[in-house]
Amino acid sequence: MFNSLVSKLLWWESVKNNGWNKTIKFYLRKKNQSHINKHILQQTAAERLSSHGLSLKLSQQKVFARQSHSILTKYQDTLIALGKKNLKHEFNLLGSGWVCVNHSPLSISRSSVDFSASCDGESDNRGYQKINWHKDFISGYSWCNQKLFDQMAVGSHKGADIKWPWELGRCYHFADLAHLYLLTKEERYFDEIKKQFYDFTSSNPVFYGPQWGNAMEVSIRAINWIYALDQVYDQKITKEAQFFQDIAHSLAEHLDYILTQLEWTTIARSNHYLANLCGLAYILSRLELTEASQNLLRWVFQEHCQEVLYQFLPDGGNYEGSIGYHRLSSEISFLTQNLFDLNRPEVSDQTYNKFVKTNPFGLPFFHRQSAIKPFKTIERLTLAHDFLSKVVSLSGEFVQVGDMDSGRVLKLTPQWSKNLEKEDHLQVESVRALRLPESCYLESYLFTKLKPLEKLSSRQLKIKNINPEIFFKLETPLANSSQSYSWSTTFDLQKNIQFYTFQNFGLYIVRSDHFYLSIRCGGLGAQGGVGGHSHNDQLSIYLEIDQKKLIVDPGSYAYTSYPKLRNEYRSVRAHFCPTVSGREPSSLGDGLFCLKQNYEAVCEYFDGFQFLGWHSAYGKKTYRSIHVKKHSLQVNDYFFGNLPLDRLKLDQGFFCSTVRPTRGYGEIS
Predict the structure, then answer these.
(1) What percent of the chain has pLDDT over 90?
(2) In a 3-state reduction of DSSP, which class is residue 606?
(3) What are the backbone angles phi and psi of residue 633, rounded to the nearest 5°?
(4) How far apart are CA 342 and CA 286, in angstroms?
(5) How far apart are CA 474 and CA 536, in angstroms?
(6) Which helix (H) or strand (E) holds 610?
(7) Which of 80, 259, 374, 577 could serve as a FRET partner for 265 with CA atoms 20 to 30 Å apart?
């Protein structure tokens, strides 16, 4: 329980705010929460939620505005092509290629509402083949839907990756079907949403099988269902009352699951908990509001305000040490904030204090109400938005640092090539559009109102801890090993040069008309030192000259399905870093989601034209200096230990990484 200083501080903060009894009760609950307690299965979600005063009916107030016909027509051809695939149950997820995922119906149904009759008993469903929601269609392995998730052997089957059924179970494609119904008014698209909804609920009983693996997956699925529901709700409200009632019951089951399986920990909590809060906010807002749900919404609002400040650093970067996860966490947080911009819960202190005292859902109360400052949250999200805009290279893609999960909450704007071969996972504009209502992306039209984030001035912070000229004159001659790399061009690299400093995250960016450079150095130790999504990439660089990607970060490709391959992508050898005798700066043997940085990494000088930084991972200091000249770039490495630096391989200026670059999870360029 007290395995870190942070845990101790959080414990005593809770005791100070809530008292011993409430704190101990909450920690004991969290200790057992990783397993589904038997008493949870003895009641239905409806019984649990009703006993706490929550409604199981849909509200007449939508949370997502309907997309305009004019903006949908811009994507009509791609949507129609995707619709043909969806109707045939063909999906291309995480690099799988287009695969048909049909299979024979499954018989089990432990849902609190029997949805199977609604699906299989209707005459217009003849010929519909059920989807296999449990299969990794890359390896062919299927997980059982008759076992509680925590009783399943996830990760024990080589090559099998549960992220594939999870990706399918998020139901991103429901948005495409809803958009097609709005565009064409063809009933088959609405009917497909309906059939797949009943298919899913009859094949995936709550708490059983891979689709109930964690509260984040459940939250994202609920948000996608709500989005699709809101697109068709006005036109179908009278004819489809039973369908909407069944959706309300299923959303209540999702709400109940998230509340019982909150992914909150004292340290190293992540985008999962942000997603939990987002899912709770949207489900509660889409169901009829009661006093209990309003109180619960206020708790979600307060947790969201504090969690943004916890997970996003003062410079706007994300504390997980990954740009891919920065994108995901930003999208989650933008969506949640947008909802509260429109619908801030109105709760009296008297009723809320009573709710806090009884704490019917066993929620964490670690924040004083007086400490909640929503404007600070807005300010931090503004910085996060600014960070996203600065990590986009000249080619219009964001650079990769750390793991690349390809995770999203809503995938509304189709980011596909013309022949639907590939989805652009490095596209950030659709996420940035959540806070830019004037853009042409579908994400810009999620809400009838928006409070746009204020634009920030450039973060041109110069760092001058030492004089580099003195360093080069007096210190570098003492280095036992040194080497240099250079790139020349006819373009003026200094034309309209700009630079951006993100010290907390550990990233330094230089860009001009024909040049983009990012340098990884420092940071606060990702996820409180756990480093779950970090790589051994200190002092690595991304380099692009005239849209030629000379040096790139290779991404991450896979997680638990191929442990050896995951470590190859995390390895220092996969990055353009100074290395010594092939040694890893941090051990890769502590776990696939653990990379402890037990050494210093410091930027000593940065002004856009010069960079000087070092780390001490190899016992002695390893320096890297970078000089941006008018027509060339010079990189010099120095090591003050007794071992030689490894020579990094270049082929006509392009870095030859030990692994092939990936543009997203499961995909290789």
Answers:
(1) 59
(2) strand
(3) -125, 130
(4) 13
(5) 30
(6) strand 610-618
(7) 374
Q: How far apart, in whole angstroms, are the C-alpha atoms of residue 406 and residue 262?
A: 23
Return d(Cα 135, Cα 131) in angstroms, integer. 10
For the record, the structure tokens of 615 come out as 């780390």
Q: Say whether pLDDT at 443 is over 70.
A: yes
Q: What is the mean pLDDT of the chain?
A: 86
Secondary structure (DSSP) of 258-276:
HHHT----SSS--HHHHHH
**What does residue 38 show for φ and ψ, rounded to 5 degrees?**
-60, -35
Could you tell me the CA-to-CA distances from 252 to 45, 148, 219, 245, 248 in Å, in that order? 7, 19, 12, 11, 6
C-beta contacts of 4-10 below 8 A and 24+ residues apart: 4/266, 4/267, 4/528, 6/266, 6/267, 6/528, 7/266, 7/267, 10/266, 10/267, 10/366
Instruction: Answer whether 0.70 is exceeded by the pTM.
Output: yes
Q: How far is CA 334 from CA 215, 227, 444, in A?
A: 19, 15, 12
Alpha helices of 19-75 — where are they, by DSSP H? 20-32, 38-41, 45-51, 69-73
Q: What is the pLDDT of residues 311-324, one digit of tens each?
A: 999 999 999 999 99
Among 110, 152, 104, smallest CA distance to 132 is for 104
Pair 222, 282: CB distance under 8 Å: yes
Alpha helices, H only, 89-172:
116-120, 163-169
Q: Which two tokens stand for residue 222?
A: 């609920």
What sign has the CA pseudo-torsion 221, 223, 227, 233?
positive
Q: Which residues pair with 366 in a beta bridge?
A: none
654 forms beta bridges with 651
Q: Are strands 654-655 and 650-651 parallel, antiparallel or unpaired?
A: antiparallel
**Angle between helical axes of 241-260 and 215-236 (0-180°, round to 10):** 160
CB 358 within 8 A of CB 467: no
Separation CA 325–CA 318 (nearest Å)? 8
CB 578 within 8 A of CB 643: no
Mean pLDDT check: name the lowest of 148-152, 199-203, 399-403: 148-152
Residues 6+ apart with CB under 8 A from 48: 256
Whether residue 365 has pLDDT greater than 80: no
Q: Which residue has the tokens 């996820």?
A: 527
Asked if 288 contacts 59 with a C-beta cutoff of 8 angstroms, the reply is yes
- What is the CB neighbour count within 10 angstroms for residue 649? 11
Residue that the structure tokens 């001009």 belong to: 512
**Helices and strands of the chain, counted as H and E runs:** 20, 15
Rounded CA-CA distance 34/71 in Å is: 44
Question: What is the reported pLDDT for 452?
Answer: 58
CA atoms lying within 13 Å on the CB side of residue 252: 29
Residue 399: pLDDT above 70? Answer: yes
Structure tokens that stand for 135 in this block: 């299969």
Element (H, E) at 285: helix 271-286
* Residue range 612-669, pLDDT digits in tens: 999 999 999 999 999 999 999 999 999 999 999 999 999 999 999 999 998 888 888 7
637 bridge partner residues: 483, 624
